[in-house]
């Protein structure tokens, strides 16, 4: 069962384009990529997120997940709590830092207060670090994650501040619900929209993959 639900998987899939090459971590990222390939994005090539680093040279977009994300899109898959005495320690970063450093990245993550924190406990992979100029100052290209897709909606970085802003909510979800599960004062886009429900083709693909 997807942590994002059908609305989240569909919203993530719609961010991919026909003919792209994407690298996707296992789980919801791969499911979203396969959904895109089965519906609106023929020719989409999905690379396994466990492939060697040189495979990133072919990719144009990454789909990843994490244990924590913060207001600037920094990601943590290393430890929860203090590094030396953590409350939880994870297997390690894998390709995550390489993907977020090299590619426009879509983060897929269930929207819960424990995961959406003001500052991650450990920066496994940088997003905007702490502002819009920080990545360039340390020699990283791009801006970090281009979108964070959750079971409640979609967040995108503000170009002026690099802080994540709520741009989309899924049907039946309120801004108050999203803010209640976010560990920083979440800004809301003036152009907030509601994501469209799955099309017939998307619903058929979702049903087929669940069978």
Strand content: 15-25%
Q: Percent range for helical residues?
A: 10-25%
The largest pleated sheet is described as:
8 strands, mixed
Structural class: alpha/beta
Q: How many beta-strand segments?
A: 12
The residue ranges in which pLDDT falls below 50 over 5 or more consecutive positions are none
Please give the radius of gyration in angstroms.
16 Å
Strand order of the largest sheet: 2-1-3-8-9-10-11-12
Can you describe this structure?
The chain is of the alpha/beta class and 211 residues long. The chain has helices at 5-13, 28-38, 96-102, 134-137, 175-180, 200-210, and strands at 21-24, 45-48, 61-64, 68-69, 75-76, 79-81, 86-89, 105-108, 145-149, 153-157, 164-169, 187-194. The strands form three sheets. The chain has an eight-stranded mixed beta sheet with strand order 2-1-3-8-9-10-11-12, with helices on both faces. It has a two-stranded antiparallel sheet with strand order 4-5. It has a two-stranded antiparallel sheet with strand order 6-7. The radius of gyration is 16 Å and the shape is globular. The mean pLDDT is 92.
Brief descriptors of the model:
211 residues, alpha/beta, two-stranded antiparallel sheet, 6 helices, 12 strands, 23% helix, globular
């Amino acid at each position: 069962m997807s942590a994002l639900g059908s609305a989240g998987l569909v919203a993530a899939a719609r961010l991919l384009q026909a003919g792209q090459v994407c690298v996707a971590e296992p789980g919801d990222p791969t499911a979203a990529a396969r959904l895109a390939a089965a519906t609106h994005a023929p020719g989409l090539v999905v690379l396994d997120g466990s492939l060697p680093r040189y495979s990133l040279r072919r990719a144009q977009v990454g789909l990843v997940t994490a244990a924590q994300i913060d207001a600037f899109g920094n990601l943590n898959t290393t430890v929860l709590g203090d590094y030396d005495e953590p409350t939880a320690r994870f297997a390690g970063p894998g390709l995550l830092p390489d993907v977020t450093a090299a590619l426009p990245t879509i983060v897929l993550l269930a929207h819960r207060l424990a995961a959406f924190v003001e500052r991650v406990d450990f920066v496994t992979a940088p997003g905007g670090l702490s502002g819009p100029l920080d990545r360039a100052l340390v020699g990283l290209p791009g801006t970090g994650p281009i979108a964070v897709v959750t079971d409640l909606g979609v967040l995108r970085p503000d170009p002026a501040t690099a802080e994540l802003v709520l741009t989309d909510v899924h049907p039946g979800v309120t801004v108050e619900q999203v803010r209640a599960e976010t560990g920083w004062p979440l800004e809301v886009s003036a152009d907030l929209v509601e994501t469209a429900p799955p099309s017939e083709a998307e619903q058929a693909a979702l049903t087929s993959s669940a069978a």
